[in-house]
Design goal:
The protein is mainly alpha-helical. 53% of the residues lie in helices and 7% in strands. Strands 1-3-2 form a 3-stranded antiparallel beta sheet. A hairpin with a 5-residue loop joins strand 2 and strand 3. Helix 5 (156-163) runs antiparallel to helix 10, helix 11 (330-336) packs antiparallel against helix 14 and helix 13 (369-384) packs antiparallel against helix 14. It is extended, with a radius of gyration of 39 Å.
Length: 424
Amino acid sequence: MSNEAQDDQNKIDYTARFLAMTSAALRLGESDEVTAKKKLEPAQEAAPPPPPHGEEAPEPWLITAEELEAIDREEQERQARKNARVKVKLEQPHALTELLELKKYRPKRGRGAGTEGAGALARLAYDLACRVLQFRPYLYDKDGKLPSQIVLHLSGEMVAEVLGVSENTVREWTSQLAADGFLEARPHYTTAKNWAGEDVTMMDGTLYAVRLKPGRNARLRYSDMKRQYRDLDADRKAGRTAYNAIQSAHQKAQRWAEWRAAEDAKGKHDPDAGKNTSGSSHSPEERVREELRQQLRRWAVIPGDLDINPVNSDSELFGDEGPTQGPRTVLDVVHSLPLLGLAHYSERAALVGIMGATLARALNDQHSRNFYCRLIWEAWNQELMGIPGLQALATQIMRLEIDRREWKDLRSPGALLASRMRAA
């Protein structure tokens, strides 16, 4: 074979091998593409076996009874975890002697010798702070730790009357306690209407920051001063002012002194009676201070809450001409709840209706009057069974009134009250 023929044969063999390799590569690529498509396609579930003869096939969206029970059980467990209460042990307040050295404030000479001096103001502020902490447990930290301080809104005039000193003396004592970081006080102002109906700035009380942890200094912050604590226009209209409270306490003490003098003149008064009972002081001045102390304890929890004209008996509510005067606010209902135990059984239903209507009107929930009446009836029925239901209801209503004043966006106070009563 010649060289030319040999070259032609080599070219033919090379071309044949190239075509064979190309066709093999194309076949391999097609198989890989098919395999990839199969991997991407979702796996088809095996068709369920056909139902027995004469029975209809179940719908694919139906669930079995076992699956339904499992779903209900899971939902109940979830609700139980959600409603589970985590009991946190609240830290008890430190003793006053741990927060302040009281001996240094005792005057050694002068008119105040032998008295507590500024320590009396410290003791009063500490007592009111502990009471606020009792009614407002949310002031504790999440782990039950004691807050470093408590801010109180009080009446400076009533504080001076309770301590039996002038307002200048109270300011002097406040400066002494502020130097040690136990107390800080400033006047608080709000906007109210004057006699001409114009909005003016008025003083509505005094803020006191009271230390509750050793080593901390009590401080009033800007947020404390900016916050509104009471509706001064509404309180003045209802007569809930410090002036009226002081005048009422003095009038009660004067009437008591006149009654005692009359009993002594008749020879019917026992000088030893009531010595061991609380609130049985024989001095009108002491009775005034004790009365105003109780008023301050009420004010500390809800600023402006004063029992100026309490309903002492059901004759005030049920006279010869029917109901003449009764509760008007939420706090009036709280003060009227004990009347259920004093009222005649034939008048009790009307009393419950009055209080229920007052709650519905005060909470802007007119269509739920029957609901509030039922709450009061349930509390009374608990009292008949020996359970303090009225006290629990009064506590929750007072707590609701606090939330209404601090929680401006509260839409349904009645629903909040019902929820708390169920949890109580």
